[in-house]
Queue: 4 jobs
Job 1
Amino acid sequence: MTLSRCAPIVLFLLSYLPTIPAQTSILGFTPASAARETAVETKFKSIPTPDQERRQHRIFTAEPHIAGSKRNNELAEYIRDEWKKQGLEDIIIRRYDVYGTNPKSASLEMIAPMHYQAVLREAPLDADPDSKNPAISGAWLGMSISGEITAPVVYAHSGNPEDYDLLRKNGITVKGKIVLVRYSNPYSYRGFKALTAQREGAAAILIYSDPAEDGYKKGKVDPDGPWGPEYKIQRGAITYDFMVPGDPLTPGWASVPGAKRIPIDQAMSAPKIMALPLSWHDAKPLLENMDGPLAPDSWQGGLPIPYHLGGERVKVHLKIEMENGTQPYYVVEGRIRGAKLPDEWIVLGNHRDAWVFGGVDPSSGTASMMELTRALGQLTKQGMRPRRTIIVCSWDGEEVGLTGSTEWGEQFASELRAKAVAYINVDEATSGPNFHGQAVASLAPMLVETSRSLQDPSGKSLYEAWKATVAREKEEGKQSGQMNDSGVANETLADTRIGSGSDHTVFLNFVGMPVIGLQFDGDYGVYHSAYDDFYWMNHFGDPGYRYHTLMSQLWGVTALRLANADLLPFDFASYAANIRQFVDELAAKNKTVILSGVAGSRSEAATESKDLVSSLDLAGVLKAIDTFEAAGKRLNESLTHTLTGPIDPKVALTLNHGMMQVERNWLNPDGIPGRPWFKHILYGARFTYAHLELPGLTEAVEAQDWPTAKQQAEILQRALENNTKLLDELRSHLTN
Ligand SMILES: [Zn+2]
């Protein structure tokens, strides 16, 4: 049971309010500015209310609103109109004509050894009126191709490459067959499963939700609990956006009118396989009729049947008709113009499109955004306009391929590189009470500091609640052997390992902006299904809308600190320490990477290696990290001293613009090898969406491609040296 459902306990704790100590100093602020900022934040935090969060959430979850649909476009107009009333400025709806995806029809029929017609729809729940809405789509996966085939079915576990190796060992090929795989827990992007099946020569892929992962094996199912019921279908796109996100026809440039478009058969991110999601209700008849060897223990699932590898006996007829083609997506953009520094931007964003109602994903975030903008508008009307400009965007087509944010980011890339301080993403605001804050390492300290000034519904500060969540998760990780220390230091609170899978991607990996991601989560088994709706949120996710409210407060306060700081609260010493950790981990995982001159780290395998060429020495990189860290520490000290008194605005401008440049300097214009769109050399994502640190270097090491690895190490070393020079140059503007 989660705390959010213990209403009496929470009410009891709330009677001890307030427990947040007043903050006397704030990173990046002089004492006088910090006092002003505290007053602004106190006012800001008093505006969002649970009732308004709930009201907004109901509006966004009233009807299905997939990207490109009439309803989703009406919601774009609704946001525009609300923002006007709230007092946002320069509101504009931007249109991108992109390659979109829509289902037309799908059928799946088992024709041997017996007949079974798959339902491919979600059963309505009596307790949940929205689940009876006739506009709910059936089973479909975005960017599947159309087709029709009759073929045997093979069970391929999670559909990862090693799963096909095991099938091969058992003499089972999937060429021309249909693979049945399950959504795996931990999460791995379904597009990677589709690409893997395509590479293996499968004719189609069926991806089902096993009750072991998010159904009855986890606990009570909807409508009695938060987990997925028998007919739950996890929709989703299979776009290969890990190669290049956004419109597949405009890789690297915006889909504005008149833009050049490549043919779909040349589009790297467009799948070339039929794909369909299944509920476990529809997967069970296939699984229980399969022949072939018994699947290994780790492949057995939550259904009360033995899982076999299959391959011959079960034959199905699958037909999928899609309507994929160019259609308009709409990004809504609004802003509060900065009073002093209108050309320095803090960008905030949340996607609007949902697979169905989007109770958690994304409408919890959209509701929080609407309350955030209402509060920002009120502050401005009361004369508390931020110093820098705050831009807020409602993205479209995130679910299809991070499409709206990618097109917008590509369109304004050069302006963003000149003006943007940071991007703060909220996708799913709330599926439970556990806070997860993500940030590039230079912003991690300011995010941790910000969490101290917010009140968690549990009665603790958000900071204390966050610490408790991280400690608990570390403890759980320890049990499964992933963690070896249980202390939660402030430096390890924020997650600084940033993969893909949401709208921050273009800003971090293409534009080179520092990013922050905010989310509360909990037990959530209805992801991307029709059951992710208003009922679910009101019974399980956030019944009192208190975490929605807290998200509006947190998101807004974080934005206000970046918008109002005298000197931007970047901590580059912290960045250096993180990069060193990334390098150490790379060396620990790959014995061919040596860190010469570092006691005890020269690995046996490398020194014993007969072929001296097949190793990589990162001593130069480590030295560059040390000097970057020293420069970061020196700058921190100078900035702290400078912030004790008033600051010359010209000096502040030079410093702030210089500090904004640091993140851009992590970009390699050529991108990471094989994926030129992804330009950041510290952060990337694997094809599974999982975070991938030092992506170019790591992938080269893993492939034992030593010339490329050496080249990537040199690129990293040069970037570190450039940023060291930049920090020292900035410090020279300060007198202390
Ligand atoms: Zn989402």
Note: Residues 351, 361-362, 398, 427-428 surround zinc ion (CB under 6 Å).
Job 2
Amino acid sequence: MYMPRVLLLNADWSPLQFISDIRALRLLMKGRAEVITLDETPSVWDEYYTSVSCRYQIPATIRLQLRVNVNPSVSRFRKRILYNRDDWSCQYCDKKLNWNTVTIDHVLPKSKGGKTTWRNCVVCCKCCNRIKGSKLPQEANMKLKKQPTEPRLIHFWNLNDKHNWHNDWTTFVNPRGIYSCSTIE
Ligand SMILES: [Zn+2]
């Protein structure tokens, strides 16, 4: 129900992360953020705020009043974000995958000391995963489509939820070079 649906910007207008509407309203009420654009879709909060005679429309984008420092490399490893980053396709054979067929391959295998990190994990089909086993890609004669990197902010959005994507977000969420962080409270 309370999915992330509000884009939070830093005071310098750089995108930080997607947050829930509850968290966005809390930041607004505490005066820690300002509304940049509004969400036009109905919200569970509409009725509540009408009833307390202080109607709040849910924002689509808000901006912090004070800049917070973010470390771009702190985003916690999460499978779904990895699947989004690799566009749900096997990084060896390009096959399209879903929740039932997706697996994760450690490029440097765990048995050789490979860690579960953004730069060592890629989306892989079951078949390629079996063939690669505990070898390096070159040892298994397999080639990665691209080098794995930290995810960008856009990968934190549920891409199956395209209808909820706000056009104005594209102004702030540059599909290139933006990293996310999960430490803002
Ligand atoms: Zn494959």
Note: The longest strand covers residues 4-9.
Job 3
Amino acid sequence: MINALSIDLEEWYHSELVGGRRSPSSQAAEATKPILDLLDRYQTKASFFVVGEVAEQNPNLIQSIFQRGHEIGCHGYSHTLLWKMDENSFRRELRHFHSVMEGILGKTEIKGFRAPCFSLDNRNKWALKVLLDFGYQYDASIFPLKISPLYGISGAPTRPYRISFEDVRKEDPQSPLMEFPLCPLKIGGLKIPISGGFYLRALPRSFLVWGLRRINRSQPFLIYFHPWESYEKTPRFKLPLCNRVISYYGISSALKKFEFLLKHFRFARVDQVLDLR
Ligand SMILES: [Zn+2]
């Protein structure tokens, strides 16, 4: 079974949990380099959902990712959540992203989109039509569980599906857009997210292997990960306890865990797992 590997290429300050703090300097290139080196070592290609303003500050990084054969996808221009935009501002956001990317890579097809903080749900389903207008072939923003106040939509499919433009939780065989949702581990009636971010950092390796293999009995899973999650110099702020744990737990061992996954599972770019051309 070949699974999908995705990296959301953003700065630490794009996280919703750091309370709007910002930094003028970029850590993205330094934080991403060890990830790129590991991917090379394990001859694995991944999908990088890139924030446009990060690309603007790091054109060489984007060229390097592209030249190594990874997929470049879109994670917005400014990492603004979809609920904070309307259709027109989302179009402006994508235009901005595409003009930055064209400046760096020339005319390159961008097939995949991930909404900042998995913020796609039925309140902003108009975003699907906009994605189609910009030539996208798939979205990877559905988190099919409601366990965080920030994201999640319960009742959505947990395996890739053609997404309905009327109800993002529904499959529509006629839909031109594919959706690759996050795939939770199902045990009895329980659904547990295990394949990305904090969950990946926090769960013990033995449980991860057991859980991911269990998902692989019937379908591929999708990993998501941020370079700041494995970078020692990510600044640590005095956040409320819960946000502090979610943001910083396991950062120092995250690269090792990433490598552990590369050793134990097979991965490819999201567009390849979805068999898109
Ligand atoms: Zn993000």
Note: Residues 8, 10, 14, 75, 79, 116-117 surround zinc ion (CB under 6 Å).
Job 4
Amino acid sequence: MTVRVTAAVLENYDTPFHLEELELEEPQAGEVLVKIIASGICHTDGLAQHADLPFPTPGVLGHEGAGIVERVGEGVTSVLPGDAVVIGWPWCGECEHCITGNPRYCDQLGPLLAGGGRMNGTTSLSRNGQKIHSHFFGQSSFSTYAIANESSLVKAPKGIAVEKLGPLACGISTGAGAVFNALRPGLGSTLVVYGTGAVGLAAIMAAKNTGASKIIGVDLHDARLELAKKYGATHVINAGRCNPVEEIMKICGRHADFALECTGNIKVVRQAIDSVGMLGTVCLIGGAPAGAEFTADHLTTLWGKRIIGMLGGESTSKKLIAGLLELNAQGRFPYDELLVEFPLEKINEALAASYSGEVLKPVLRMPH
Ligand SMILES: [Zn+2]
Ligand SMILES: [Zn+2]
């Protein structure tokens, strides 16, 4: 038995997505069939489209899916048909990092995110008997239905607008989690956010919920900097018009305590590293092209400086998404104001609008 789905297929790298009908398997033991209501688009989808993340083609991308449980496989007990769910990051549940509470750094993360199918090599999607690569981030949610592991699902509260939940699975959680889980700015500390797109704005919204006294947004677009101010930045810098590191020194009277790099642009990575001083921490979360390398000044790095990388906001999908939804309901984390809906068939336009900066966070609505 298979389910007919409409999905956006990536046939080859560097080509546009096209919509096609595919067959999706029924859920196996431990798996859940989710009727996708909407899926966010994250820059990682664009990285995979251009082979900067090695997901095999032909395949279906999409890793910010939210929807309704349609059917469950054998042994699934934590969700039932009809439950609203967000599909979080997959994790093996058995390796050293998974069992010590760090599933974002699961030893099997590479194959789980981008292996192109289940861990046993099978795919859940096919086209007239031909294998189509699936399980991108354990979901492949640019599709009307997706198969995900029970362990990656996060149940949403009853009555919530499911179409707004997908971006909490990756981009929004990454920005907010970098602040809440990795940097944890204390009272009176200073934080710089490089890149005020959706991820950076989520970080700024999170920082507003901390004791940070100076929250500095850096970008090249004035319109985005206006949004940064609206959502909690106390200062903004247009890096196209000045040297941001010098400007930060003026604003803080010294180096900043924390810098968050959301652009993946190597020149900006260096600026972020140079923005923090003694005992400062720089957190890198922007996705750079495959093979990119960065440099740092050796002497000033010895000053107790920490350069850390971070994936997916750390913690667990369940904890992050539940926490952010509560803040959202209280008006303290208005991430949903950044979302712009597109129908699935406009996927290429949606991605282009995200890259041009015209749209902060595109969300694809599935045709049902
Ligand atoms: Zn693991
Ligand atoms: Zn993502």
Note: The chain has a mean pLDDT of 97.
